[in-house]
Amino acid sequence: MGTARKITIEVPTDLLRKAQEASGKGITQTVRSGLELMAAARAYEGLLRQRGKVRFSQKLADLKADR
After folding, report:
1. C-alpha neighbours within 13 Å on the C-beta side of residue 52
2. Phi, psi of 32 (to 5 degrees)
3. pLDDT tens digits, residue range 45-54?
4. Contact, 20 vs 30, CB < 8 A?
5. What is the per-residue pLDDT for 47?
6. Please, are residues 50 and 65 in contact by the beta-carbon 8 Å criterion?
7. What does the pLDDT look like over 13-54, one tens digit per residue?
8. pTM score, whole prediction
9. DSSP class of 1
């Protein structure tokens, strides 16, 4: 993970409770998971922008036949 940074944040109690129930983990891991999801969402948006703009040299049928 590299270096870590200790922070203090204020979050609504009910939001934290719901997030912890959804993750099944403690506060720190729940917050980390939320931050990871935000980072992944941005990466996913970038991939969606590339949709239809990337050309492949192989045909889908050839890739399936190679299994």
Report:
1. 1
2. -60, -45
3. 888 888 888 7
4. yes
5. 87
6. no
7. 999 999 999 999 999 999 999 999 999 998 888 888 888 887
8. 0.64
9. -
Q: What token pair was written down for 51?
A: 């949709």
Give a three-class secondary structure readout of 2-67. Answer: CCCCCCCCCCCHHHHHHHHHHHCCCHHHHHHHHHHHHHHHHHHHHHHHCCCCCCCCCCHHHHHHCC
Domain boundaries, the chain: 13-65
The pLDDT value given to residue 16: 96
Tokens 């998971």 -> residue = 33
Query: For the chain, how far is it from start to end, CA to CA, in angstroms?
Result: 35
13 burial (CB, 10 Å; 0-12 / 13-18 / 19+) is exposed
Closest CA to 23 of 36, 12, 10: 36
More confident residue, 57 or 23: 23
